């Protein structure tokens, strides 16, 4: 009988998932999705191959579950940070910073690679996790326009332009000691793009 990790079956399952996700994260960053095997993830996680197959029948299911958990946790952090910002300008700046920090910290394969590596239904499940993030951005822009902080603009055009800019890895692929400055530059760029006048030039 497999050894139970933790004090209950539920705790055992959660700890197995945590170990497996940590191992997957390491291997995604080091090797890329194509080189990953369930056996290799199980070995790094220190769990039996049978145990990992009980949770995930193949590496596609593993990746989808991993992204869903990571995305849910990130969306919660993003919503809380944006809600704590005092005004639409700070909300947008917070949104941009968190998006770029997340981009710098995570190295999942780009969308085109995922689209070709996964079944369409699995890719749609992963892509759907961008919806709450896009909704958060749309809400910030609507609040800014309603309050007169941002000029009137079409979110159907502006939202995808901002999300496209924030998906550019070149912004964050810089030495660690330059990342903060790069993100500050990007924040200033996005604020100008939505019509926020620089401090001291409010006329």
UniProtKB/TrEMBL annotation:
**Which Gene3D superfamilies does UniProt cross-reference here?**
Tetracycline Repressor, domain 2 (1.10.357.10)
Keywords, ordered alphabetically: DNA-binding, Transcription, Transcription regulation
Source domain of life: Bacteria
Q: Which residues form the HTH tetR-type domain?
A: 14-74
Q: Which part of the chain engages DNA, per the record? A: 37-56
UniProt cross-references to SUPFAM superfamilies, sorted A to Z = Homeodomain-like, Tetracyclin repressor-like, C-terminal domain
Checking Pfam families in the record gives: TetR_C_24, TetR_N
| Keyword Transcription belongs to the record | yes
* Molecular function (Gene Ontology), one example: transcription cis-regulatory region binding
The question of whether DNA-binding is a record keyword is answered with yes
Please identify the protein, giving its name as recorded: TetR family transcriptional regulator
Organism source for this protein? Prauserella flavalba
């Amino acid at each position: 009988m497999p050894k139970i990790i933790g004090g209950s079956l539920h705790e055992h399952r959660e700890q197995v998932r945590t170990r497996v996700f940590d191992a997957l994260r390491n291997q995604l960053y080091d090797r890329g999705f194509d080189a990953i095997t369930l056996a290799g993830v199980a070995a790094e996680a220190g769990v039996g191959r049978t145990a990992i197959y009980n949770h995930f029948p193949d590496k596609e299911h593993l990746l989808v579950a991993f992204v869903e958990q990571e995305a849910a946790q990130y969306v919660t952090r993003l919503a809380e940070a944006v809600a704590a910002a005092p005004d639409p300008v700070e909300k947008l700046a917070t949104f941009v910073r968190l998006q770029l920090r997340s981009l710098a910290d995570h190295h999942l394969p780009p969308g085109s690679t995922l689209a070709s590596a996964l079944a369409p239904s699995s890719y749609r499940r992963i892509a759907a996790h961008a919806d709450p993030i896009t909704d958060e951005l749309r809400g910030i822009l609507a609040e800014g326009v309603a309050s007169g902080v941002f000029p009137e603009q079409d979110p159907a055009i502006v939202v995808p332009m901002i999300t496209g800019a924030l998906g550019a890895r070149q912004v964050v692929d810089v030495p660690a000691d330059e990342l903060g400055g790069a993100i500050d530059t990007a924040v200033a760029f996005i604020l100008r793009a939505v019509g926020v006048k620089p401090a001291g030039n409010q006329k």
